[in-house]
């Protein structure tokens, strides 16, 4: 465990060198929610309710949703894994007394810290500025359950990225795969807009994928549109998906290594 | 005059060759190319879906009807598609600076800015242009135009879109040129990307006077898709046309100067 902790701290320190870049990234995304806030404000000038959402609920969806999106994000691990496989640098990892997948998880955890701190600061300022326009839910049980859901969501997204990256054992160029799947997963999670603004069939389909449990369901819990029991059920489904993804990665890794040619060695 | 014509033809040929080589590069992995194209198409579909969702609850967005708003979205998609399809938002510039491979492009006997700009393009993003044209046609069909007015308006619209292209290109060049000093400049690019994406909505939604000033004077988002759409719908407005042309020229000259200034600070990591 100590070695993974070292990887986490190393990665954190390495990313401190690029803090300006990370802060710029976070600010870049801030403009995205500003546009969302402006658009929904304009829309709600003509109506008081949209498919069960009031103006404060929609603002909360956008603002808290922004935090959830970043708190559960990992940054481009598909490409990194693909590079390791194609350039043969994976060989260095295989001979070390540690699991490559766990190594990637540790790197991701080290990397996310600075982004998380930046986003938390921006989010606090946003909540303070818009405190009269959003719903503040301080129910401890809800917040605790949300915290667990977000933690599992982070790992689901990470394992999904790792799984896509491992496809590189079989195909050379994976950018198209992860580009398309990332858009699809973001849509299915409800991050573009609330899923229930679309016809019910979209929500029903999205329940068969893990993504909706990483964004939409925790937000519904926060907005009290689902009960704690339903939230717990969501957490259960999330854990099930996490387990399934882990098994799938094990399987892909097992067969992938047989295909691995250790280029450059 | 002959010399200028020869120069333009030469630049055009190089651009075509670069485009061809980028298509070859992408088509080396056809599956990946099609997945990229599908991804771009899906992204476009989501933007259109969002407009449809909005208009299923309201009749107009800050004074813009459904088809008028579609026209703004189509205009933005056209510019976005051309930017990705012709110069990939100058992705190649940052990449070459970071990898220290810019030297190879600078020594070529051709204008450095031009070659660096067209060095990378994403051919799969021409899908965005095709989608935009389809969307544009749908929007136009929904709007009531008289034939004679439409042709003049369309001509002006296309002229303004060229200005929009140069405005976006120039802002991108400035942001990408900052990489000469910082090496890691992707974060700044993210800010630019999200800001320019705001122009897919009519800028009239920014009803606050400060926001309006920022998005018309400082970062002229209004001139990217809202103004061209306005001219196509309402007809010529000399003030707006002149302002758009003036901005495009000023932005282009300023960005070119900034690029060359940045070039002096290029330290070539690999040399």
UniProtKB/TrEMBL annotation, chain A:
Membrane keyword on record: yes
Keywords recorded for this protein, A-Z: Membrane, Transmembrane, Transmembrane helix
Pfam families from the UniProt entry: ABC2_membrane_6
TM region(s), chain numbering: 21-43, 58-77, 103-128, 134-155, 162-181, 201-223, 235-255
Coiled coil: none
InterPro entries given in the database record: ABC-2_transporter-like
Keyword Repeat: no
Protein name (record): ABC transporter permease
Naturally occurring in which organism (per UniProt): Candidatus Falkowbacteria bacterium GW2011_GWF2_39_8
